[in-house]
């Protein structure tokens, strides 16, 4: 009887996950770089504009060490470099569901393929590709730790008919890979970030569905010890730190259950506050050195720029 009740709850969760987003309309299509997006609700003193459009299934975002933006396109199986005018140039193609992006301090870009036996691939400044690791199980997020050291998330959510979901974080270096954290539970690790010291903060993309409350996990990258750092957010998909300090963290909540996404802030105590609403489904968030906030909206193929008004 207990298992039956649990199964009913789990089935409900996955029914929620299959909600179809509404067809975007209004000020979503036909807009150019720099045009205002009035549907985004923001704190006073901020505005939202179109930064780039036309990237099919835009997902992970990252800035290189030189300040160039890169975006992954799951729909096109490609990674693009985007200039300050929002123009996108393909730098890698023929990828399988590219999702997570990260950059190091030497101009390299790293991308994960969110498929069974997915790869971690380095995109060199020359444009050459190098496979750093393969046989990963549906890797999503990636973070560069130091030279030749990475952490990636894995999740069996795509292949699980019902939970529990086998998910976790894997460390990768020149000697191979090893699991840092794993869980057979009602979690699914998506994006992640490191504080540059010992902590890794990991998003749970199942947060907010049914009775699942854990939104962010904090994991010690040396011992693997972990704790729930933040609760109460919904479908946490992307994460990045602030430009002038690690906190507050920006969290991209993909879908609140209605086909709409939200951007929230999480402080050093794990307290979350809403920053921006009115998105369609969103995937990732990145912040530039001047405090500009970029959000990928895969429903529209758009990257949205939020910044303080002049």
SSE string:
HEEEEEEEEEEEEEEEEEEEEEEEE
> Biggest sheet, in brief?
4 strands, antiparallel
End-to-end gap: 61 Å
Per DSSP E runs of 2 or more residues, the count of β-strands stands at 24
Overall average pLDDT: 90
The CATH class, by name, is Mainly Beta
What CATH calls the topology is: Neuraminidase
What portion of the residues fall into strands of 2 or more residues? over 45%
**Helix segment tally:** 1
Which stretches of 5+ consecutive residues score pLDDT under 50?
A: 1-23
**What class do helices, strands and sheet pairing give?**
mainly beta
User: Which architecture does the CATH hierarchy give at level 2?
Assistant: 6 Propeller
Task: Give the number of domains.
Answer: 1
Per-chain topology:
Elements: H1 2-17, E1 46-52, E2 58-63, E3 69-73, E4 78-82, E5 88-92, E6 98-103, E7 109-113, E8 116-123, E9 129-137, E10 139-146, E11 149-155, E12 165-173, E13 176-185, E14 189-194, E15 199-204, E16 214-220, E17 226-231, E18 236-242, E19 245-253, E20 261-266, E21 272-279, E22 284-287, E23 293-297, E24 302-308
Antiparallel strand pairs: 1-24, 2-3, 3-4, 4-5, 6-7, 7-8, 8-9, 10-11, 11-12, 12-13, 14-15, 15-16, 16-17, 18-19, 19-20, 20-21, 22-23, 23-24
How would you describe the overall organization of this protein?
The chain has about 300 residues and is mainly beta. It has a single domain, classed as Neuraminidase. The protein has one helix and 24 strands. Strands 1-24-23-22 form a four-stranded antiparallel sheet, with no helix packed on it. A four-stranded antiparallel sheet has the order 2-3-4-5, with no helix packed on it. It has a four-stranded antiparallel sheet with strand order 6-7-8-9, with no helix packed on it. A hairpin with a 2-residue loop joins β10 and β11. The N terminus is likely disordered.
